[in-house]
Amino acid sequence: MNHSNSTTNTTEAIGQNLIKLISNICFSFFVFSVLIFTVIAITYQPPDPWLQSAPPFTQLFTQSQNATFHVDTSIIKTGEDITLPPQRAPVTELQIQITEDKIDNSTSPIPSAACASGTLNCSDPRVLVAVQRFNLRAFRFIVFFEYQRPVNGSGSDECDVAWRFRNKKEKSWRKYRDFRRFKIGITDDCRYKVVHAGGWHSGLNARRNFPRATGAGGKGKNFPRISNNLNRDDEINDTIPSLGSQVNFRNGKYLYYSRGGDYCKGMNHYMWSFLCGLGEAMYLNRTFVIDLSMCLAATYNPSNKDVEGKDFRYYFDFEHLKEEASIVEEGEFLRDWKKWDKNHPKKRKVPVKKVVTHKVTPMQLKKDKSTIIWRQFDAPEPENYWFRVCEGQAAKHVQRPWHALWKSKRLMNIVTEISGRMDWDFDAVHVIRGEKAERKDLWPHLDSDTSPDALVEKLKRMVQPWRNLYIATNEPFYNYFDKLRSNYKVHLLDDYNELWGNTSEWYNETSLLNNGKPVEFDGYMRVAVDTEVFYRGKTRVETFYNLTQDCKDGVNTC
């Protein structure tokens, strides 16, 4: 009996100890799991929003071109396409009515004498109220900002009005300008109303006059007079920032990248590398030295040759970059550096840290006190690509500042002009042909699926007849889309070539940047403008997924 009780007690003790052991193990596992999760949460940093993983794109930029994957140069994306703006709810009829009621309640009817005579006074604030009310209903996809006071039009019943606006599909916060002519009538209750509205930039009396442009020095060089079609944008400031005094230069901290293997590569490659350097400068809290002289890759040129000496400001918004990042132009920087070393004894020369390999990480340079960190890219390709600096562990610390790189405002003004001439009421189709249509091994159906007859049949099912139809394309033959003209009001980029011709504002302003020499409206600019107009279409039809069954990147890549 005693032996039986002793055995029972021993079994119970073992069972209790086993339960305690299991409990301790489970608790330890829980604590360890929480610790691991906490470490991950603290150390994790999200990747760049456009290019989600650096290694695949490193492989893409460094691999040979015999792979089936081809970089799509028919669509150009920059920071304003990647950084999402605050979402705006669509404007409803009730919201329009509430806004109109506020406008109407802020003004009184026309005095009875003026109402009876039908006399129009364009400076009367009630005229502007009528125009605002009309615009709210006519252009629901436009955000209106400040209006200017109306001025007399060409007739006694006409007023010209100018305002600043932004299309709701615009992903930057830039403003554009329109001026239109309105025929004004009077309602039965003695209020002004818009009887007829003119088209884009029809209100010539409301546009501002600008003097004839001169050369960079202000004397001696005259350029073609500004066209009436494009209003000069006085908000563009492409001036190169100055470091000021020698003391300011010496007190600064700079990150200087010498030219590497990225030069004359594709624009996507250029942006990927440029933003790596700019991101490292931000991480190190230094001013980035920017070389404004670019090389446009052969893929964007009809001659199929690389073109050097292109100005960064032709393609990107330099003013916005200056606002978002600390930068200095390379020529200005080198002059100040040389001047300092020339004017000071050897012991007081500028401290320079030379870095000869991308394997020296930004983290290793974080505490460096040198005035200039000079990264030199003299190794053979692909070791001399700028973006190699941001690979590996550096990718967790250096974030590419996509928000700082926008398309050129001058190019965007052309986009706005084209869209405005179609009264912002158009559909768009993106038709990719060119080399891809010829490569039957990679895109076997693309040529036939984008033939004129095929386009007519397919677009009938997607776009209403007689709509404005903008065609963004790399097809070189202008008359290729003539069969569509029997169903649609067809618009192509070349229909607007006066916007960059030798009487245009774009031509005049880019010539100033190029020391008075004309600038070619090159293949990259065409793609950038085509892309942005396409994005503003109400109905958008893509080549891949809509017009052809082929995969975008070649066979077996869908």
Automatic annotation (TrEMBL):
The keyword Chloroplast does not apply. GO terms for molecular function: glycosyltransferase activity. One of its GO terms (cellular component) is Golgi apparatus. Keywords: Glycosyltransferase, Transferase. Residues 119-202 form the DUF7074 domain. It comes from the Eukaryota. Coiled coil: none annotated. Residues 248-543 form the DUF7075 domain. InterPro entries: DUF7074, DUF7075. This is Putative GDP-fucose protein O-fucosyltransferase. It comes from Lupinus albus.
